[in-house]
Amino acid sequence: MMHWSLRRQSSWVQLAGHRGNFRLSEGGEVLKLYSEVEAKCLDFLMRDPLRPFVPQYHGLVTRGEQCYIRLEDLLNGLRRPVIMDCKMGVRTYQEEELIKARFKATLRSDMYQKMVKIDPSAPSAEEHAQKGVTKWRYLQWKDTTSSTSTLGLRIEGIMMEDGSIQRDFRNILTPDRVTEALLFFTKSQLDILEAYHSRLLALREALKNSLFFKTHEVIGSSLLFVHDHSSKASVWMIDFGKTTPVPDTNQLRHDVPWVEGTREDGYLIGLRSLINSLSEAISGSCR
After folding, report:
1. pLDDT of residue 18
2. Are 103 and 136 in contact, with CB atoms under 8 Å apart?
3. What's the whole-model pTM score?
């Protein structure tokens, strides 16, 4: 029988949807496939006001021929955890990906198939003929047809305490629908909703004082919401594989729409949307 800690980690890995990037580990750690970009971010974050809001980084370890990042197990101490992965920002692709796609467009048949499965009319006639789309084209389409471009966030998946996973949140395009999703995720439990609300308010304050946040383009990062039946609840910033420092001394605002060349990510737009929807969910659960 798998150790309970490993079962918890398996839940996290399953929801993240990148099983090949993770390795389960004893000792209260999760091993994530090494990324130089992410390792540099985590090293910086350990010395930043955001440290209480990210998994603790314990350096690197080698297993076989692979190098892994050692991360705190965010599900430690929770029984039958309920988890939500919320992708933050108004875009999930880097400006470098956009530039690269213009000069060296690699067609992806797997992403074309994903697009067609959701909306057969989405690809252009040329893309249908090629049976492929570029990664940037797929990510841009996914962003513009979801709440990413409008609300600055996108719910990627929810795992309930019985282990069931729901990923189809394409219909969540308005603040009201985000509120409904939060009520579903928390089963309208007021104490959990308030704990999440307080945690996000504290995160917002930490972001104001964070040099990391001021100087990094945060792309493809998620907020991981976790609680259990005992009402333990917390929110963590995760996934920094696409988060890179801005190339000059300019500081990002994170609360304005993106225009190519600005490196703005709209992270605070998404955070504001979440805080407002949580406020509405709290009001709703009190009625």
Report:
1. 55
2. no
3. 0.88
In this model, does residue 121 exceed pLDDT 50?
yes
According to DSSP, the β-strands at 222-227 and 233-238 are antiparallel
pLDDT single digits (tens) 44-98: 999 999 999 999 999 999 988 999 999 998 988 888 899 999 999 999 988 888 8
Model pLDDT, residue 157: 92
Torsion of CA 25, 21, 265, 180, to 10 degrees: -70
pLDDT higher for 247 or 44? 44
Virtual CA dihedral for 91, 96, 101, 103, nearest 10 degrees? 150
What's the Cα-to-Cα distance from 216 to each of 147, 167, 213, rounded to whole Å? 23, 29, 5
pLDDT recorded at residue 1: 26
Residue 2 has pLDDT above 60, yes or no: no
Tokens of 139: 């990510």
Token duo for residue 68 = 């892994």
Residues in the chain: 287
HEC readout, the chain = CCCHHHHHHHHHHHHHCCHHHEEECCCCEEEEECCHHHHHHHHHHCCCCCHHHCCCEEEEEEECCEEEEEEECCCCCCCCCEEEEEEECCCCCCHHHHHHHHHCCCEEHHHHHHHHHHCCCCCCHHHHHHCCEEHHHHHHHHHHCCCHHHHCEEEEEEECCCCCEECCCCCCCCHHHHHHHHHHHHCCCHHHHHHHHHHHHHHHHHHHCCHHHHHEECCCCEEEEEECCCCCEEEEEECCCCCEECCCCCCCCCCCCCCCCCCCCCHHHHHHHHHHHHHHHHHHHHC
Reading the block at residue 247, the tokens are: 């190339």
- 115: Cα within 13 Å, side-chain hemisphere: 26
